[in-house]
Amino acid sequence: MTDAPSPVPTPEAYVLGVDSGGSGLRVALGRVDTDGPLFTAVCAEPVRTGAGGIDAAHLLEQLLPSAAELLERAGLSSSGDSPGQVAAFSIGAAGMATLGGRLRAELPGALAEALGVRRMALAADAVTAYAGAVGQRPGAVVAGGTGMIALGTDLTGWHRADGWGHLLGDSGGGAWIGRAGLDAAMRAHDGRRGGSPALLARLHAVFGLAEGLPGLLYPRSDRPAVLASFAPEVAACAGADEVAAGILREAAAHIAEAAAAVCPTAGSEGGDACEVALTGGLFRMGEPLLGPVREELARLVPQARVTTGTGDPLTGALRIARALALDDLRLPHHPTMLFVPAGDGASGPSGGVGAEVRNGEPESDGVPADGPVSGAADRPTDRDTSPVRHSSDISG
Question: What's this model's pTM, rounded to 2 decimal places?
Answer without folding.
Answer: 0.77
